[in-house]
Amino acid sequence: MSNHDHLPTSQAYDLWSTVYDTDGNVLQKLDDIYISTALPPLITPNTTVVELGCGTGRNTLKLVELGAGKVFAVDNSKGMLEKLCEKVKTGGEEVVEVFEVDLSTFASEGTAVENGGGEFKKALEGREVNGVLSTLVLEHLALPAFFAAAASILPVGGWLLLTNMHWDMGSISSAGFLDTTTGKKVKPVSMNHTKEQILEEAQRWGFVVEGVEEAGIRDEEHARAFGRRAEKWVGVLMHVGILFRRV
Ligand SMILES: C[S@@+](CC[C@H](N)C(=O)[O-])C[C@H]1O[C@@H](n2cnc3c(N)ncnc32)[C@H](O)[C@@H]1O
Predict the structure, then answer these.
(1) For residue 216, which of 17, 177, 190, 238 is within the disulfide window of CB 3.0 to 4.6 Å?
(2) Does Transmembrane show up as a keyword for this record (predicted)?
């Protein structure tokens, strides 16, 4: 019997949502470090941001704390969005609007009509979006769907801050969590995208690169700062952050 359950992405994240914020995920910790320096310079009180694949709001709440004027948070896992809504209730309800949208329906520019996509698009009508944030989501989407979504939302001049599992880590692993109720590892749909593939698809949709940062666990001592789960990743690049501008 397999010790892995491969589930549709939204179902896997519905299950993962119960422990997502607390299971000591090393990639989230690397993401926090990158976001702590990459995000603040992009946010002012007038900034409107769309967050694609916001999950439990790990970074949505940072946007609120940094003083963004408006945040449209999008995901297709009800479980993850419930966690976000609980957090937003105690700070941010007037800033954050939440939408259940399946980003894979953005197959070509502006065609998301299913699963709340229409409602989301209506909310954006007449709004100038300044930036799109998407952290640790890209591995679950085909590249054309992701960049079609970002391009349909972001006008020329806007920024896209994207993070993802690094392609080196993605060549030997993928997102997943241990469901302690079944003892099985739950795996959503996942695909590894190389640097060349990401940058080529981004360019097709009018995104130019302003910076790329790659990070991982350097050595045993570095691993200690990230907890027990970091030990097996020593020497592997795990995280990439890319800042794009739409031209
Ligand atoms: C690893 S989590 C990242 C959550 C959050 N951005 C963070 O950094 O903590 C990936 C998120 O992408 C969402 N996601 C995956 N595929 C999606 C799709 N097709 N449409 C919308 N959201 C999707 C999942 O539901 C999940 O919340």
Answers:
(1) 238
(2) yes
Q: Is residue 11 part of a domain?
A: yes
Model pLDDT for residues 93-142, shown as the tens digit of each residue: 899 999 999 998 876 545 554 556 788 988 999 999 999 999 999 999 99
Residue 197 in any domain: the answer is no
- Distance, in Å, from the CA atom of 191 to the CA atom of 146, rounded to the nearest integer, reads 13
Helix, strand or coil, per DSSP, at residue 88: helix
CATH of the domain at 59: 3.40.50
Q: Whose CA is closest to 59, among 46, 74, 76? A: 74
- Average pLDDT, whole number, for the chain? 93
Q: How far is the CA of 52 from the centre of ligand 1 (A)?
A: 7
Euclidean distance between CA atoms 147 and 209, whole angstroms: 13
Q: Residue 44 domain-assigned?
A: yes
Give, in degrees to the nearest 5, the angle at Cα 80 between 77 and 84: 130
Pocket test residue of 15, 17, 58, 76 for ligand 1, highest count of atoms within 8 A of CB: 76
Work out how many domains the chain is built from and give that number. Answer: 1
Cβ neighbours around 111 below 10 Å, total: 14
How many CA within 13 A on the CB side of residue 230? 23
The Å distance, Cα 221 to ligand 1 centre, comes to 31
CA angle centred on 57, ends 231 and 68, rounded to 5° = 120
What angle, 0 to 180 degrees and rounded to 10, lies between the N-to-C axes of helices 195-204 and 143-153? 40
Task: Quickly count: other Cβ atoms within 10 Å of residue 195's Cβ.
Answer: 14
